[in-house]
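Changelog-adjacent note: as of this version, every example in the card shows the full chain rather than a window. The one below runs 90 residues end to end.
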Amino acid sequence: MIDTALVDGHTILTADFNGDGLDEIVAGYRGTGRSVYLYSLAGEHWTRQTIDDAGMAAAACAAADLNQDGRVDIVCIGSATQNLKWYENR
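Full-length structure tokens:
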């Protein structure tokens, strides 16, 4: 079990966002507190980083190097929030 706090989880994807050769997990949810999180494995435990706090009711997310800088970015589309956001991997 990685996280039990997502309410109405609706999207999940994996990619190597930090370039260490291991995939991280992006999970978004559209229920109360809607957010997008990035989970990284640190040793034997998963850590959670907030990508978007309440500004995205993520119905779907995708990973791609949108600006061709060699780093994988995240783009999500929101249902209840009616938005499309690009999260640039800096």
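Structural remarks: The first strand starts at residue 9 and ends at 15.
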